[in-house]
Amino acid sequence: MSLVKSKQRVADHGEVFTPAWMVEAMLDLVKGETERIDSRFLEPACGSGNFLVQILRRKLAAVELKYGKSDFEKRHFALHGLMCIYGVELLPDNIAECRDNLLEIFAQYLGLDEDDDLHRAANFVLARNLVHGDALTMQDSDKQPITFAEWGYLGKGKFQRRDFRFDVLTHSSAFSAEDSLFAHLGKHEIFTPARTWPPVTVAELARMQEESP
Ligand SMILES: C[S@@+](CC[C@H](N)C(=O)[O-])C[C@H]1O[C@@H](n2cnc3c(N)ncnc32)[C@H](O)[C@@H]1O
User: Fold this and answer.
1) Domain ranges of the chain
2) Which atom of ligand 1 is nearest to the CA of 47?
3) Which residue's CA lies nearest to atom 19 of ligand 1?
4) 172 secondary structure, DSSP code
5) pLDDT value for 20
6) For ligand 1, mutation pick of 8, 10, 48, 89 (most atoms within 8 Å of CB)
């Protein structure tokens, strides 16, 4: 794979992709987290997903080890693994490629075709989690504050979604510092979700994908 699309893009956006061997070496520095299905990763300049793709592969390998024998559990935990992967990317072609790359790996692992509810649900999740926007201004391409969905798996096929603003999340470490003025408030009081959604199933997520513009 070429690490550069054009000299102009390197000059304009610093677009140089990370080679596979380096991605693996860097992910090995946090190996345990990459192999945990529900660990959350955010790549603020994700390009076409060189890091996120390998993180997904590692999570799916963990799903196979733990839940490979049950189709129901495998499908739901694989979706939850995907739900825990986030990215921001400035360039529209890169973010589209990134979503496609992750969806292809997910679909291949579970043997899904495009009509499968789980394929549509994954598409919906990727459109929320992989944001076309600017990680520096923390605004999306419509100049709205970037909001990330936190997905939890409640079991029995139900997922819980809570939305948090990126700019608020990035201040979390300052608030929780021991000597901070706000330390006594605790994280939960300051970082309340912008929105909490009712629990949803794969079929409901698939329907949301069909209805989304
Ligand atoms: C050095 S490349 C790395 C891509 C990918 N992380 C990788 O390692 O292969 C940097 C990427 O960041 C994107 N980018 C540059 N400025 C950005 C910004 N302010 N917000 C989000 N993405 C940005 C570029 O379009 C490019 O795809």
Assistant:
1) 7-211
2) 27
3) 134
4) H
5) 93
6) 89
pLDDT band at 181 (very low <50, low <70, confident <90, very high): low
- Asked if residue 189 has pLDDT above 60, the reply is no
Question: For residue 86, what are the β-bridge partners?
Answer: 42
Tell me how far apart the alpha carbons of residues 16 and 3 are, in angstroms, rounded to a whole number.
6
For ligand 1, whether the C-beta of 53 sits within 6 Å is no
**Where does residue 186 fall: left (phi above 0), alpha (psi -120 to 50 degrees), or beta otherwise?**
left
Three-state secondary structure of 63-104: HHHHHCCCHHHHHHHHHHHHHCEEEEECCHHHHHHHHHHHHH
Report how far ligand 1's centroid is from the alpha carbon of 15 (Å): 6
* Ramachandran angles phi, psi of 116, nearest 5°: -70, 135
Q: What is the dihedral of CA 82, 85, 89, 95, to 10 degrees?
A: -10
Query: pLDDT digits over 90-107, tens only?
Result: 999 999 999 999 999 999
Which atom of ligand 1 sits closest to the CA of residue 91?
A: 25
